[in-house]
Each structure stands twice: as C-alpha cells, then as structure tokens.
Specification:
The protein is of the alpha+beta class. The chain contains two helices and eight strands.
C-alpha cells in the first residue's frame, strides 16, 4: 500500500511540475535591430536570411543585411545541432529563431542547438520548416497527420496478441 501511495505522490508532483513549465510566459518576438537590447534573454528573433556562410565547423545565417552590417546572426555549430538540412535553401526566407541572445564581438546572435528553435516561412507567411530543413539527400517525409495507416509488408508473420 505504501508503494502505491508513493507512486501516486510522485505522479502528482510530476504533473504539477509539467503544469508549472507550461505556465511560463512565452518569449517576446522581436526584430533583428531590437536584439541588442535583450542580451542573455530568451527571445524569438524574426528576420530574413540574406546571407549563408558555410565553414568547415560552423554555418552563419546573417539576417536582414549581409556581413559585416548584419544586425543579427544565427550560428549553427556542425555536430552540435539537430539541423541537418541545406542551409543555402534558407537564403531569402523569413525565419524566426528562438533562444538566448548572446553578445559576440558587440553583435547579437543565437546558436541553433535544436531544429525546434527554427521556424521558416514561405513568401505568404506559411510555415515550411519540415521541408526546408531536411537533408537534401534524404527523401521528403510527408507531414500529413490524416494519412491512412500504412499496410504491413506481406512477408511479416501476423502479430499474436
């Protein structure tokens, strides 16, 4: 009986902690020029990718103006990010990047650690993140949630319940 009570108490605390996390205020959405006012704060920065620079260990996305006049840079460290798409496909796209704004040589930047930090928009403002961030040598993954379930291969034995 004590074990069941302990499990119920632990489950209740876990639900309360999750609820507390979801009650946290959403980060503010700002433009690239305002980012210098929010160093060391988590924000959503919006802008247009005008320059993509790919180096052996890092990729830079300069927003709104090319380097050195870019008011904001997204930094993607190779091997330290879940972004595996074609960064050049982002050029000319409007994006939102969510994360902690860092000051690097008196310029604001956010390092992309997770693909969940990045939202990409088409020219009409529709979200296109899944298609644009996939690897160019991987097949496209359909994003439809109402697709019929796929049939099982014929060579597999039936499941025994």
């Amino acid at each position: 009986m004590k074990i069941i009570l302990s499990i119920l108490v632990a489950a209740t605390l876990a639900v309360q902690l999750q609820a507390a996390d979801t009650n946290a205020p959403a980060p503010l959405k700002i433009g690239t020029l305002a980012a210098t006012n929010y160093y060391n704060q988590t924000m959503i920065v919006t802008g247009k990718v005008v320059q993509v620079t790919i180096r052996p260990t890092v990729t830079f996305l300069n927003l709104d103006e090319p380097f050195p006049n870019s008011p904001f840079t997204v930094v993607i460290f190779h091997g330290h990010s879940s972004f595996y798409g074609d960064a050049n496909a982002l050029k000319g796209r409007s994006i939102e990047i969510r994360g902690k704004i860092k000051n690097y040589h008196d310029k604001p930047e956010i390092a992309l650690d997770s693909i969940n930090q990045l939202t990409v928009f088409d020219s009409k403002g529709a979200v296109i993140t899944p298609a644009i961030t996939q690897s160019t040598n991987a097949p496209a993954i359909p994003q439809s949630t109402n697709a019929p379930p796929s049939a099982k291969p014929a060579n597999n034995p039936p499941e025994i319940l």
